[in-house]
Amino acid sequence: MYKLIDGKAHSAAIRGEIAQRVNTYKQTYGSEVGLAVVLVGNDSASQVYVRNKIKGCEEVGIKSFAYYLPEESTQEQVEELVEGLVENDAIHGILVQLPLPKHLNAEKILKLIPERKDVDGFCEENIGNLCMNRKCLVACTPNGVMKMLEREGIDLKGKNAVVIGRSNIVGKPMAMLLLNADATVTVCHSKTRNLKEICSTADVLVAAIGRAKFVTADMVKDGAVVIDVGMNRDENGKLCGDVDFENVKDKCSYITPVPGGVGPMTITMLLYNTITAAERSRTVG
Ligand code: NAP
User: Fold this and answer.
1) Which of 172, 193, 231 for a ligand 1 pocket mutation test, highest count of atoms within 8 Å of Cβ?
2) d(CA 177, CA 101)
3) pTM to 2 decimal places
4) What are the pLDDT tens digits along the chain (285 aa)?
5) Is the Cβ–Cβ distance between 41 and 99 less than 8 Å?
6) In this structure, are strands 184-188 and 93-96 parallel, antiparallel, or unpaired?
7) Test site for ligand 1: of 206, 229, 265, 269, most ligand atoms within 8 A of the Cβ
8) Smallest CA separation from ligand 1 atom 17, residue
């Protein structure tokens, strides 16, 4: 019998801990914890994400600063805003919602965010520190997966972990986190040969592909822990993951559902990174 990993429940528990840390920060320093969220343009999915991030901030007592710039904003205007946020001591984390409109150079804008305020964990310093297994701000989605595994008491030491997907925001940091937790890690991608055989060796299988129901039962070892990062629409327009949940679940020891698995953890880890950045601003340098 498999156990469903309840991302909503883990998320609520972690948000409770974050709210306590935020409260302690406010009492200790007499000031707020601040997160700036920058949205350029009218992308409707991005608007929903930004709204949820602001709601998350309210829930844990973080002060959010939302900046809505018009679609036609210039590179200089966006850079000027971000540079101002970098200098502003009331802001501990800066998040630029992606994707940015095509005429903007996203890489150049993201590069302006220093390591200490990079609550998305995307900058080179944070990624380098993750590779060196040093304390750093870690990309929210893979860090959320690690928190769930940890809270479920799943020991990763010596386990075979397979990650499908090698994006900079999910697959690669996920692989590094699993490696840092002493798993033996294989990273697969679209050019991988014998994908099914490799996946069948996984004690822990993480799917971060972006293809509905891609992971089928014949790819999953009996008793595996299956983590589904995917967020896709099926043929009926219903939200679904990268894993064929109905056919895979009975082979698993643990499995995350979509929705209600990894998804709720991502914003929670953004809030986690923001309070961590605020606390560090008081103790470092
Ligand atoms: P991405 O940048 O498109 O990367 C997808 C990865 O999957 C790539 O490395 C790609 O390989 C690999 N892939 C594609 N087709 C494959 C195949 N047939 N066989 C093996 N590997 C294949 O996507 P992402 O940003 O990492 O996101 C992945 C999924 O997670 C998406 O569904 C996204 O919506 C979801 N997501 C969810 C959250 C959340 O909060 N729950 C957050 C972020 C992302 P190549 O590198 O060779 O192209």
Assistant:
1) 231
2) 31
3) 0.97
4) 899 999 999 999 999 999 999 999 999 999 999 999 999 999 999 999 999 999 999 999 999 999 999 999 999 999 999 999 999 999 999 999 999 999 999 999 999 999 999 999 999 999 999 999 999 999 999 999 999 999 999 999 999 999 999 999 999 999 999 999 999 999 999 999 999 999 999 999 999 999 999 999 999 999 999 999 999 999 899 999 999 999 999 999 999 999 999 999 999 999 999 999 999 999 976
5) no
6) unpaired
7) 229
8) 190
| Burial annotation 152-166 (CB, 10 A radius, 16+ → b, else e) | eebebeebbbbbbbb
Cα of 214 vs centre of ligand 1, distance in Å, is 11
Ligand 1 site, residue 165, Cβ cutoff 6 A = yes
User: CA separation (Å) from 158 to 13, 153, 203, 204, 229?
Assistant: 28, 15, 10, 11, 23
